[in-house]
Design a protein that fits this description.
With about 300 residues, this protein is mostly helical. Helix content is about 80%, strand content about 0%. The protein has helices at about 1-30, 35-40, 45-55, 60-75, 85-120, 125-140, 145-160, 170-200, 205-210, 215-245, 250-255, 260-270, 270-300, 305. The two termini are about 10 Å apart.
């Protein structure tokens, strides 16, 4: 297991280098002059040139990239044009709310999705199955921003049970955003769990277990479910990566002070160092989540790591 993990970590090195180069080129491809933005709109040509020198924009691209890569290894991401605060501090202040929101969203989506998927598979083509699939289709079809607005209108404005946004009310502040963010994931997990479990229940070893007198509970939870979870792990792992970087819309709807809201604000103010750092952060975390999915694969199916 350790050898498999080390091999997978080594394969990430060239990928991370490619990602860092693409993110580095981002600031050279977008419209506008970073030196002018840093110096200010009323700056003179001399001040703009001084800013270009301080940013190293007059150096060859390869030299600039080497400097950028060296700064990344030291976790030096520059300073915000807007506030002058180090970018690493801005991200550190916002990462906890987004991480908590994402974890809550994926946890409830996994629990409810797997449960509905099991019920739908066991009662295939019957009423519980139809209800579960109708719930799954609804979760996939409803846009999360619309679902968030509807939840605010019902549970915050009309009933007054939950806050409309922010994180000042503790765990209550996370209920509506996590529901809006996780509804689509729950629907996908429900469908994948049902499909995979239905396929597994048709296998020969399941029929053998039934012929030996094993109960349905033992067959489903002791044999079939574990072998059906690899597609579910794939969906959950990839969607967790998407949630961390894709919570922008939900965070905007709920005025949630996370990384998504920070990205929107930074784009609005053309705060390129923050935007660049956030794109890099989202890319790296998605790569690491994929690595975690591969490791979980090897735990559920040891044949993968031997192959």
């Amino acid at each position: 297991m350790l050898q498999f993990t080390i091999k997978r970590l080594l394969t990430l090195i060239p990928l991370l280098l490619v990602v860092s180069f693409v993110v580095f080129m981002f600031i050279h491809l977008i419209p506008g002059d970073p030196a002018r933005l840093m110096a200010g709109q009323d700056a003179s040509l001399e001040e703009i040139e001084d800013a270009r020198i301080s940013l190293g924009l007059n150096d060859p691209i390869l030299v600039q990239y080497t400097t950028y890569l060296s700064s990344l290894l030291k976790l030096e991401l520059g300073e915000s044009y807007r506030s002058g605060i180090p970018v690493i501090d801005l991200i550190s202040d916002r990462v906890a709310p987004t991480l908590i929101l994402t974890i809550l969203s994926i946890v409830w989506a996994l629990v409810i999705g797997i449960l509905l998927g099991i019920i739908s598979a066991v009662f295939r083509d019957r009423l519980p199955d139809r209800i579960g699939m109708m719930t799954a289709v609804s979760g996939i079809s409803l846009p999360n921003f619309w679902l968030g607005l509807v939840c605010i209108q019902i549970f915050s404005v009309q009933l007054g049970w939950l806050p409309t946004g922010g994180i000042n009310d503790g765990l209550k502040s996370y209920i509506l955003p996590s529901f809006a963010l996780g509804a689509g994931i729950m629907a996908m997990i429900t469908r994948f769990t049902r499909s995979s479990l239905v396929h597994t229940l048709k296998q020969d070893y399941i029929r053998t277990g039934r012929s030996k007198g094993l109960s349905n509970k033992s067959i489903i939870y002791g044999h079939a479910l574990k072998n059906s979870l690899i597609p579910v792990i794939t969906v959950a792992g990839l969607q967790f990566g998407f949630l961390l970087g894709g919570s922008v819309v939900v965070e905007t709807v709920f005025s949630f002070p996370g990384l998504g809201q920070l990205l929107i604000d930074s784009i609005s103010y053309r705060d390129y160092p923050v935007v660049q750092a956030l794109i890099l952060f989202f890319s790296v975390q998605f790569i690491l989540v994929n690595l975690l999915v591969d490791i979980l694969y090897s735990l559920f199916n040891p044949k993968i790591r031997y192959d």
